[in-house]
UniProtKB/TrEMBL annotation:
<dbReference type="InterPro" id="IPR046341">
    <property type="entry name" value="SET_dom_sf"/>
</dbReference>
<dbReference type="InterPro" id="IPR011990">
    <property type="entry name" value="TPR-like_helical_dom_sf"/>
</dbReference>
<dbReference type="InterPro" id="IPR001214">
    <property type="entry name" value="SET_dom"/>
</dbReference>
<feature type="domain" description="SET">
    <location>
        <begin position="50"/>
        <end position="205"/>
    </location>
</feature>
<dbReference type="Pfam" id="PF00856">
    <property type="entry name" value="SET"/>
</dbReference>
<protein>
    <submittedName>
        <fullName>Predicted protein</fullName>
    </submittedName>
</protein>
<dbReference type="InterPro" id="IPR053185">
    <property type="entry name" value="SET_domain_protein"/>
</dbReference>
Amino acid sequence: MESPYTPHKFYLRSPTPSLPPTIIGALFHPSMIPLLPSPLPLATPIIANPNFEIKDAPHKGFAMYATRDIPEGGLIHIEHPVFIVPNKPLPRDHAGYDQVGSQLPRHAFQEMMTMANCRSKQDCPSPVEGIARTNALSIELKFPPEMDAYGESAKKYGAAFLILNRANHSCGPNAAIKWNLPTLTASMYALRPILAGEEITKTYVDPSLPRSQRIAHLQENYGFTCDCQWCNLPTTSSSLDSDATRAALRIRLLTHPSYPKWSTDLARADDVVLNSHFDALQLIEQEGMHGLQGIYLEEIALCYAILGDEDRFRMWAERLVRRCKVEDSRLANTFESYLDDVRRFKRWAWRRVQRKQMQGKKKRRHRILGWMEI
């Protein structure tokens, strides 16, 4: 079957007339083009005073470091990809990768060629393909029905970024990346507070996997041995404990109390979900798996809302909004509206009201029983 991919070049006009457009190279099936944002978005302006710098790091090549304190949820960088390519390998005689590289502006191509390439020439004859296989981040695109003929693997795409890809790996990353199709951008944001001078890291592997599997995956796909603190625990016992904790966190919401069922079950204690979630946040902090925090922050805030505890609701809702501004802007906007007026939450203080009504019914029943005994 003929390859479904052909090279394309997209120009994103700069909002500043004096600046050149941003160019994105791509390998797409032609039928995908009408499903891209139309008109194409304007190029994202360069951040004037970035909160990070890229510099050499011992045994790592380049690395990204915070130049000032970055709060939890804070935006670190927003960027258009230099190219977008399929994850599926192309036939060895397919020139698509080299064609994509040749379409890029000279400065972008030269910068791209300094990025890590852990693939051999035998594996990836084109250096552009090797760089893509090493660096591309998975992204979501829209696909027409005719792409079904090429299988699901043909719908998996990755994008490479000249700056975002400089962030190195950690099994306890302090940053994450969010792809936005309408703007054709990826945004990096802080998963926890990052101190000035601290290295900014993302994860290249599912951090809930056991240490041995994480190390094997990183060696096979990226050619390095992870030296993060969670892969260098002092004893075998502590490594096994870490593996068990990470595996438990992966499925914790399936095995522990959560907000949806508890919220209508008055037989459960008012603090059962709160206590469980506080424990989860401690384990998340211990393992550096801050990417899991969002759902717990949301449910803690919801618990206090349905209990009618406004002070604690505001404390947790404000933290959730800060955390989710980039990660989930719709959720952040929803909770901002609740913070403006807590009564916008339709079930505000529902459990407290139900408790009072139940107590009132018990008192009336006791009075009736007392009257009947006279």
